[in-house]
Specification:
Strand content: 5-15%
Shape: globular
Number of helices: 22
Strand order of the largest sheet: 3-9-8-2-7-5-6
Number of strands: 13
Distance between the termini: 61 Å
């Protein structure tokens, strides 16, 4: 059966698009997983276009125009070859015609049966292969049939208990710096240490920094890093695209997971999240609101609070204004004399070009590397503001990158470092504070932050993480991180259960009838190996 001309062209075009679009995504955003793509399809990507208007132009050029042009070229070449096969006298040179005739004689069968289809099939097959490799589709599919690593390793934070300390727990200031990694400290790459002022804080007593803060899939983009550090679980699409009601509509964000905000709110903390960009982007606002943050601020909220839209970047409130607002918020929280958790997420170092704030421009910075250096200085100044007021006796501080940098203008330098690691600082007034490991992941931050503020977790485990400071209370298996990297994204019924809606509240019974006893089925969970962690318990809360 002959392949129709439109079908031939569509096959060639599909192959070119399957090559061009993943390549464009990797150039723009670095390592992109299929979970990440599916997640943003579900929760949306509001804010991307407004923050970087040129992104649509780059996509139209690299993701559509170039593959379309290549497809037309290949289609024309295919049509020309097929025409010459039917009309050998049309060859422009006699020797070319002779060579063609000899080739036909040698490959008669292929010429009559395979050759007419070879170009569309080769282009389509190559595009499919590149797409599958780029997004690790085979790994994604294989993960649905692997072991349930999550069920064996997960310790439900809702079930953990705390050891009674001699002092009341401290408040927490948690700063996520967009795309901040240790590689920016390399003078051989950048001519100077762009993070010099932040790195200087490591010399203070009571400061811990982990040499190897590894980024794993499921924690490798902003909302994933927030979820993994605050809930101790990865962010993956398996629960949201599994063909059931969970995937069709998510009314609450991880409703059966207990996260940092839930734990602290239950102990009287006030949780505040300050963020420059829109809370609608990637479900960020939904996550914090659903996990007991009392005040959640984003672009629209800042405008309502009086920040002029004209002074914002495409993403929203710039980092200089964000830290000005954060200081005012911190002052009010300290005056309240009640425990709090102030979480701040910066935005100016977002790829591809960054956003130059007026304050950074005033300091003489111009390019992306200058934006990184200035943002690091702004973070350091905020930390120094806390230290100078003597508040470390009441406040512990965590500074960390949300994930490794993606496709920014310095990306070519960054990827020359084979050991890229997420930047991190833990700051306390305890000079005896020590790390008990040099290698951590995002998932370790939940129990580590709880320990840092004085809520010492019995057993040292929460979520998938191990506390990385103080005495070792749970031994990590020797291959812990490598095994996690290999198995973390495998399908897990236990993980999927975290997204299951909570049961509807029972209606109030009549006054003369006793209330029925609610029954909630427990989610089965395989206990961890003996001695490795406290027994994992059902996820019913």
């Amino acid at each position: 059966m002959r392949v129709g001309k439109p079908i031939r062209f569509l096959a060639i075009l599909a192959g070119c698009l399957l090559y061009a679009i993943p390549r464009w995504l990797h150039e723009e955003f670095g390592r992109v997983s299929i979970d990440q793509v599916l997640y943003h399809l579900r929760f949306g990507s509001e804010g991307v276009l407004s923050s970087d208007p040129e992104i649509i132009h780059r996509f139209l050029w690299s993701g559509l125009a170039l593959p379309l042009g290549l497809a037309l070229l290949l289609w024309g070449l295919d049509a020309w070859v097929r025409y010459l096969r039917a009309h050998p006298e049309a060859w422009p040179r006699p020797w070319l015609r002779l060579a063609w005739q000899r080739l036909l004689a040698m490959l008669r069968h292929a010429a009559h049966h395979t050759l007419p289809r070879i170009v569309p099939l080769v282009v389509l097959g190559a595009g499919v292969a590149f797409f599958v490799d780029s997004f690790s589709v085979a790994r994604y599919v294989r993960g649905h049939f692997g072991e349930d690593y999550f069920a064996d390793a997960y310790v439900d934070p809702a079930r953990i208990t705390f050891e009674r300390g001699r002092k009341p727990p401290k408040s927490l200031v948690l700063i996520y710096v967009e795309s901040l990694e240790n590689t920016y400290s390399d003078p051989a790459l950048f001519g100077r240490d762009l993070l010099q002022r932040l790195n200087a804080l490591k010399a203070l007593p009571g400061v811990v920094s982990f040499d190897s803060y590894r980024e794993l899939m499921g924690a490798h983009f902003t909302i994933a890093s927030l979820v993994s550090t605050q809930c101790g679980v990865p962010l993956k699409s398996v629960a949201m695209f599994s063909g059931n009601d969970v995937g069709e509509k998510v009314e609450r964000y991880l409703p059966r997971a207990s996260c940092l905000g839930d734990i602290l709110a239950a102990r009287g903390y006030r949780n505040v999240f300050l963020n420059g960009s829109s809370l609608a982007f990637a479900g960020v606002g939904k996550f914090f609101s659903d996990h007991r943050y009392d005040r959640v601020m984003g672009r629209e909220e800042w405008i309502a609070a009086g920040e002029p839209p004209g002074g914002m970047s495409g993403w929203g409130l710039r980092d200089d204004a964000l830290f000005r607002r954060a200081r005012g918020e911190l002052d009010q929280l300290m005056k309240s004399r009640k425990p709090f958790n102030l979480t701040v997420l910066t935005i100016d170092t977002h790829h591809p070009y960054g956003h130059l704030s007026p304050e950074c421009a005033r300091r003489g910075h111009q390019d992306f590397e200058g934006i990184v250096e200035c943002t690091a200085d702004l973070v350091a100044e905020f930390v120094e503001y806390i230290i100078a007021r003597g508040w470390l006796n009441r406040v512990a501080i965590v500074v960390q990158g949300d994930h490794l940098a993606m496709g920014n203008t310095s990306y070519g330098k960054l990827v020359t470092n084979p050991e890229r690691r997420v930047f991190n600082l833990l700051i306390n007034d305890n000079p005896k504070l020590q790390a008990n490991t040099r290698e951590v992941t995002h998932f370790d931050m939940l129990p580590t932050m709880l320990d840092l503020i004085g809520l010492q977790v019995k057993g040292g485990r929460a979520g998938l993480g191990y506390s990385a400071i103080g005495p070792v209370r749970a031994q990590r298996p020797p291959d812990h991180v490598d095994r996690m990297a290999e198995k973390l994204l495998d399908y897990s019924a236990t993980y999927r259960a975290l997204w299951e809606p909570l049961p509807e509240p029972l209606p109030e019974p009549p006054a003369d009838e006793p209330a029925p006893r609610p029954v909630t089925p427990a989610v089965p969970m395989t206990p961890p190996p003996p001695g490795s962690a406290p027994e994992a318990t059902p996820l019913v809360r």
